[in-house]
């Protein structure tokens, strides 16, 4: 009797165990959606940033290719007046949609080295990293020094370019970047350097360069090439400094 009871329990328990295992496998497959559930190096912040950067760069290349095709089709519709064509070229260079070459400066900003961070555990970690304000200070100084064109992380800077901190990365044109950060400007190198030296913010940054070994290097370039901006030029919103922003009423709300 005891043996018969053991056999009957096995016959009942085995199908239940197999059913539970099947549900577990199905749940894992659904959650994974074809990916590995085991954490890997790609799940680190640096890996995610690099992956997003590659994806964004691919989309930018697709956008540039489509824009080139549109321009080619427009050219087939008929010739453009030479004066308008010249004006278009001049404006394209000013806007940043044409590549440029010339002398200038490259500024490189870096976070404090890891050993400095370990040696200063009581120091506010915000003092040991490069922030968007530091990048913007360099950019503003170079514009004030007469920069004719500029890039950040080899991305062309235009009138709507914004720099924003997200965690320990900086987002530019929707793409996250990790340090070091490079800002290059084409123009008169002496005037650009003087503008950097005259910047009060950069002078304050130099204190942290000395105390905590933040990276701040300036390199003179006899000739540098800057790519054209290949993203969208659409302006989402803008305000005039000194004027209160008044939201516009939606036609569906106002009934007009």
UniProtKB/TrEMBL annotation:
UniProt keyword list: Signal
Entry-linked Pfam families: DUF881
InterPro entries recorded: DUF881 (IPR010273)
UniProt entry tagged with the keyword Signal: yes
Source superkingdom: Bacteria
Signal peptide boundaries: 1-32
GO cellular component annotations of the record: plasma membrane
Listed name of the protein: DUF881 domain-containing protein
PANTHER family the UniProt entry points to: CONSERVED MEMBRANE PROTEIN-RELATED, UPF0749 PROTEIN RV1825
Family as reported in the entry's similarity comment: Belongs to the UPF0749 family.
């Amino acid at each position: 009797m005891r043996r018969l009871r053991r056999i009957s329990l096995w016959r009942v328990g085995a199908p239940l165990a197999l059913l539970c295992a099947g549900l577990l496998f199905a749940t894992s497959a659904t959650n994974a959606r074809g990916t590995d559930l085991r954490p890997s190096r790609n799940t680190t912040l640096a890996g995610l940033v690099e992956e997003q950067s590659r994806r964004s760069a691919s989309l930018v290349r697709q956008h540039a290719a489509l824009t080139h095709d549109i321009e080619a089709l427009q050219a087939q519709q008929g010739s453009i007046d030479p004066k308008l064509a010249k004006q278009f070229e001049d404006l394209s260079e000013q806007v940043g949609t044409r590549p440029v070459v010339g002398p200038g400066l490259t500024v490189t900003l870096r976070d404090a080295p890891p050993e400095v961070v370990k040696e200063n555990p009581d120091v506010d970690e915000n003092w040991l990293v490069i922030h968007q304000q530091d990048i913007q200070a360099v950019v503003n100084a170079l514009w004030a020094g007469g920069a004719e064109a500029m890039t950040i992380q080899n991305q062309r800077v235009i009138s709507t370019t914004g720099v924003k901190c997200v965690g320990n990365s900086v987002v530019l044109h929707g793409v996250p970047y990790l340090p070091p950060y490079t800002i290059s400007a084409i123009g008169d190198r002496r005037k650009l350097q003087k503008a950097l030296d005259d910047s009060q913010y950069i002078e304050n940054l130099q204190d942290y360069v000395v105390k905590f070994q933040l990276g701040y290097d300036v390199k003179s370039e006899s000739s540098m090439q800057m790519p054209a901006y290949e993203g969208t030029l659409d302006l989402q919103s803008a305000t005039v400094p000194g004027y209160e922003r008044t939201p516009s009423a939606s036609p569906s709300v106002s009934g007009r």
